Amino acid sequence: MSCTGVSLWCCDPRVKGTAMAGIWLKAWTLYLIVALGISDPSPLPQGKSYEFRRNLLGLDKCNACIGTSICKKFFKDEIRFEGWLTPQSNLSVADVQSNEGNYTDITAGWRSVVLSRLMSPHLHKISDNSICSSAGKGKSCSIETVLRATPRFQSCVRSNLLLPNMVKGLSAPMLRCPSQRLLDRIVRRYFEVIDVGSVQMKHFTEKDKLRLLYTLAVNQHALIPQMFPGTEGWPFLRYHGSCGRVMVWAGSTPIRRLFSSSLERRADVAHQLLHITQSLSSNSLQFNLFYTKVSEDMFGTLDDSRVFIVNSSTIGIIDLKEGYPPDEGLQTEHTDVFSCLSGSCEQPPPCETVRGAQSFILLCQHVLHKLLGPNDVQSGWLPKTALSELAICADQTQSDRRIISAAQTLKDILQSLRPCSSLYGYRYPECLYSDKF
Length: 437
Description:
Oligomer: single chain
Order of helices and strands: HHHHEEEHHHHHHHEEEHEEEEHHHH
Strand content: 5-15%
Helix content: 25-40%
Strand order of the largest sheet: 1-2-3-5-4
Shape: globular
Distance between the termini: 57 Å
């Protein structure tokens, strides 16, 4: 073997086996990047301190956090922020809730992910201060100690089940009408404990119970993709795990980037959005998932053009099997510091106020009108009836039956506008053989 290139290191007896392994790994990684077109994120800056990472991720605030299921990957540099923050970064002017990042494991190269806090650093600070103030501790205290002392948490500690009275008064939309079956599903699918799959919380430590209760109180977004995973056909992106107050899920392209694309592309997205909305309210589990708020940032697409819900923090859930629980109002025993941790003490209205067509109304009002417009009709490519049905769908003065009928008619019109092309990998080549696609 000639002593050139990488082989030169093989000829130096001073190089130990560990160094050789590292060199060959870097060479092999470089080969994969060149051969497969995998983008390699920027290397971690030297001197990045362990303490800075802990503070950045919110680990210093645990167990008032989401969990630690993916911390090892952060500290092994297998998850990286798109632009590495350093201890010298001015975090006070970067009050953002989400960042783009990169993720890798043994079986795959680098791929894009989203790194998101339960809420922005500014709101987290306000929330933490409110915890201390609730105990008369000023603006500085052990927030975990204060939360542990609350009657709500002590009730949770004494129980092996997550019960409706333990979550009553929390602002999460999916807890507006909590059934026992829904709460059992939360516990059974909770990713942040070692032994998942049981509705009993016997395997939960006290810190696990506090993390779950804190997550439910601050932002439900980390829990919905766990309860209804994409691998089971639900329209939610994959949840990779969390570390401190940062959760990680698969990256996507915001649909707002498609507002100026061709009509066939926009028609495909609009059709998928209508289908997703319809399927959320009608599924074999008999859970009615509905929108309480809708914005364009709520949805995204993957490389195969499939549309997903990327922000599930405003989705409510009604258990159609167990029905509406009795509305007890905002009784004193259900209102405490946990009730306001999301940044607002506003409580959701009773279950009975949820309209059957509520999700379609919000979707048509805030998103679909940005995908379909008068210019498409004037060009001759979009039937005029499409905009008429869209207007009815967005009109909340119409009856639920008329709105749902308009949404279905619009969906049928858009079906005929969708092309059968390899650009739409989520339904190709099946569309060649079936009108269903």
